[in-house]
Amino acid sequence: xxxxxxxxxxxxxxxxxxxxxxxxxxxxxxxxxxxxxxxxxxxxxxxxxxxxxxxxxxxxxxxxxxxxxxxxxxxxxxxxxxxxxxxxxxxxxxxxxxxxxxxxxxxxxxxxxxxxxxxxxxxxxxxxxxxxxxxxxxxxxxxxxxxxxxxxxxxxxxxxxxxxxxxxxxxxxxxxxxxxxxxxxxxxxxxxxxxxxxxxxxxxxxxxxxxxxxxxxxxxxxxxxxxxxxxxxxxxxxxxxxxxxxxxxxxxxxxxxxxxxxxxxxxxxxxxxxxxxxxxxxxxxxxxxxxxxxxxxxxxxxxxxxxxxxxxxxxxxxxxxxxxxxxxxxxx
Length: 332
Description:
Mean pLDDT: 84
Structural class: alpha+beta
Function: Mediates influx of magnesium ions.
Helix content: 55-70%
Keywords: Cell membrane, Ion transport, Magnesium, Membrane, Transmembrane, Transmembrane helix, Transport
Order of helices and strands: EEHEHHEEEEHHHHH
Low-confidence stretches: none
CATH topology of the largest domain: Beta Polymerase, domain 2
Number of domains: 2
Subcellular location: Cell membrane; Membrane
Shape: rod-shaped
Strand content: 15-25%
Distance between the termini: 72 Å
Number of strands: 7
Number of helices: 8
Organism: Halogeometricum borinquense
Radius of gyration: 36 Å
Membrane topology: Multi-pass membrane protein
C-alpha cells in the first residue's frame, strides 16, 4: 500500500499512486511530499528504492527488524525507530512488549515512511491525519518536521507503556506484602522481561535521536533541531524511568524471596518444636517397650499398679515444660 500527500502553506493534495510515474510526479511537485508505505510488495519496494534512490540495504534493515539507528546518505537521512506497545493476555500478568519498526527517509523536500505490516502504526497515522486536517505548523515546515512529529508520537507511546508497567509493579508490590504466591513470582519475571525488552529499544533510539538533535544530519534544518532535542530529553527521562522500574522489580523480587525464605524458616521452626517435644516422649516409650519383667534386671514399675498413669503424667509434664520453654524463647 502506497499513498502520498503533497502539501505546503497553501493546502494539501492527496496523490493517487499507481505507478512509478505517479511517484516521480509527486516527488517533483511543488511543496513537501510525504509518501507513506505499508505492507508493500517487492515490486512496490523496488519502485520506492528506484524513485527516491534508497539503497536496498536500508529497506532490508526495516524488514529485518534491526536496532534503531540513524544513517546519513548523500541525498537523504535514514532513521529507523520502533513503536512499542504492551500486549495484554487473559491473566493479570500475561503481557508482552510488542515492537514494530518504522523507517523514515528524509530528503530535501520529501519524506518516505515505511512499515512492514499492513496494520497502521498509530504514530504515523496520527501525524498523517494532522496533515490531512491542516493542523498546526506541520504544513509550513519541511519533511524533517514530519519525521519529528512521528518520533514525538512514538516516544509519547513509550510513556504510556511505562505507565502500564508501573501499574503492574504496584499490583505485584501489594501481592508481595500479602505473602508468597507463585503468581506473584511469575508476574515479577514477566515485568523484568518486559523492561529488558523495552530497554533494548529505548537505548538505541536515544542514540539515533541524538544524531538528529545535535546537527549531524544534513537533511535536518537548524530550526528543527530544537524539536529533536526535546524528543531526546524525553528519551533520557524514559531511560531513567526504565532503570528505576527495573530496580523496583528487582527489589520486589528480593522481598518476595526473603518472605518465602522466612515462611520456610517458620515452618521448619514449628517442625523442630514438634520433633523436640516427641524426642523425650519417644525415649520414654522406647524404654518401657522393652518389657523386662524377669531376671536380675527387673523393671520395678512394671508391677506397680499406678505405673501407667504415672508415666503418662510424666510425659505430659515433659511436654508442658518444653512448650513453656519454647514459648519464652519466642518459637511459638
